[in-house]
Amino acid sequence: MIRVLLVDDQPLIRSGFRALLDLEDDIEVVAEAANGNEGLELAKQHVPDIALIDVQMPFMDGIEATRRIAADPALAGVHVVILTNYGLDEYVFDALRAGAAGFLVKDIVPEDFLHAVRVAARGDALLAPSITRKLINRYVSQPLPSTTGPALDELTGREREAVVLVAQGLSNDEIADRMVISPLTAKTHVNRAMVKLHARDRAQLVVLAYESGLVTPRNS
Known about the structure:
Elements: E1 2-7, H1 11-22, E2 27-33, H2 36-46, E3 50-54, H3 62-71, E4 79-84, H4 90-98, E5 102-105, H5 110-121, H6 129-141, H7 150-153, H8 157-167, H9 172-179, H10 183-196, H11 202-212
Parallel strand pairs: 1-2, 1-3, 3-4, 4-5
Helix pairs in contact: 2-3, 3-4, 8-9, 8-10, 8-11, 9-10
């Protein structure tokens, strides 16, 4: 059972999402919150698998709520998915850096919404190639200083290769095809890289790959 926390200041939005989720046998909405403060407290109380959090809310916005959830070791298993009205905008990068596993636009079709919840619950990032291109464009226009550290040196050659492919938006199956290995081996390389780089999930791995200098817009 996938346990979901809904955090949005618009009751109609919460009701709509809840109506969709409640129809699914493998998904349960455990709580709802109208702002980031409430969402953070309910996350601590229920420790859901998924926290669907609106990006703009009173008292505490979704970015700060995400940052606090990501920083709490007791909530390490909570995958945050940011909800936005605005599509691929300036919030995407901030949300991923804060610790979000991905993001969804509120006008998403129901089938894609339910699929996204299940993808996030598996620990996979909601990072389509179009989203990855957005991140690349951000680095091209506003490059961040490299923060290469000793953890990067701990990656094996195959793990580095896998991280580069993750940063290009490839799934484990696509990485396996590119590296000519099994999907299980590809997943192992990705997971080991996440552990070594202290990345919560694939989304964080993408951000760290760019910030560390392992991946640059030129090789993406």
